[in-house]
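Annual report, structural modelling task.

Input specification for the BES complex:
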Amino acid sequence: MKVQFLAAPPASAPRLVAHIVDQDSLPKSLDPVLAEGARASRFAGKAGQVFDGFIAHDGRIIRVALAGAGEKDAKDRTAALERAGAALTARFLTSGETALTLVLDGSGLSAEELAAVLLGARLRGWRYDAYRTKLSDEQKASLQRIDVVGAPKGSEAVWSREAALADGIEFTRELVTEPANIIYPETFVERCEKRMVGMGIELTVLDEEQMRDLGMGALLGVAQGSAKPPRLLALTWNGGEDGARPVAFVGKGVTFDSGGISIKPAAGMEDMKWDMGGAAAVAGAMLALAGRKAKANLVGVCGLVENMPDANAQRPGDVVTSMSGQTIEVINTDAEGRLVLCDALTWVQREHNPATVVDLATLTGAMIVALGHEHGGVFANDDALAEKLVAAGLATGDKLWRLPLASAYDKLIDSPIADMKNVGPRPAGSITAAQFLQRFIDKGTAWAHCDIAGMVWADKPGTTWDKGATGYGVRLIDRFVRDTCEA
Ligand code: BES
Ligand code: MN
Ligand code: ZN
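The model returned the following structure:
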């Protein structure tokens, strides 16, 4: 979806015109037929409501849409405006209309409010039809463009920041949507290289041999059952003060999780193509942050492997040595995400000396049992960090809920043969997974772990996404950086 700003309405009267309408305040200048139509359809301007009708104007038929933005002084005004924009693109995406002219005269929207409308519109208007070769004309997306007329001063600059965010979210969704025969460690890296070229992001790629030299036995143990070689991808952006310690984001990038020898049941296994949603969120966030030239030093790390059960796969009971030197008894090869992350966490701490580390991972099914699809879980060794992440989630809709860490949980992963085992007993499965990761965090490093297993993929449409990849995590990271590193 392209967004462009026009100084005046296009010379040839547009076919589809849209207005943003606050609750119970139809514009006085609205054509009386439309106003009556809206009232008769019980359009009240509630957030997300859309009415559309037709009027004759200068001998042409024009389609006019009204999108409700809710009450003007609502606490969640920004979210309501996103909803209004999203409702417009949801309604007209496959309508046959190719452009929508958003007319703002008299709407009273600020540049920031307009950007919220446009962000909602762009996010809800995204879809990926690369593999759908038989769509009928009515099924194809028709809406290509939003023309904004009468935007307040400064709107284009504000929108260019939000547009970078939309770029990042769309990139994350694309990576998550692609099947595992298309996106695997090497092609994940290639997509990032292609998309990020010329943006000032430095890409560092470690191959199998380099990881072996570094002693990443935990990550490599997961990868050894797959024909696809693993990669560690680091994306660095230095937009902050010279020499200031960076903030690191680390993503689980299991491009397919069959479970390995502890193989998963067949039903629903196809979902495990999106077990790289954490890494995709990190990559999308780095794209967004570089796109808006964030004033912060940041590093994004993607631990990329495929978890497969071939003849060379690791076995339950194998003991591997991580880069940190700590040994791990692999009880269950399906608890592979933590094995990938632990080496990625050690690497980023040694290589970049970050003050803060935040990891994102589709780590446990237990997280979905606990929080469903409404919140990701966050675990942290630092209260201030947890609070900032929760606040960033609330502000953007990428919501998080904090869960505990404690030594009583940590004991549950002690092993009789190695320093630890990779699974605990069934209870508190998300917490023991977090305890496992914490064993790889250096003293003095503020760390948070976000278990986003329930958030990456949606079985039904949400306000700013269709069913499928949500792009969760990009806005969370962007907002966290904006409010805590750039402030
Ligand atoms: N990738 C899965 C977790 C997952 C499950 C994410 C469902 C999204 C939806 C992870 O690698 C996994 O298999 N975890 C196991 C851990 C268990 C073996 C301790 C799980 O949750 O069952
Ligand atoms: Mn698994
Ligand atoms: Zn997994």
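DSSP finds 14 helices and 19 strands in the chain.
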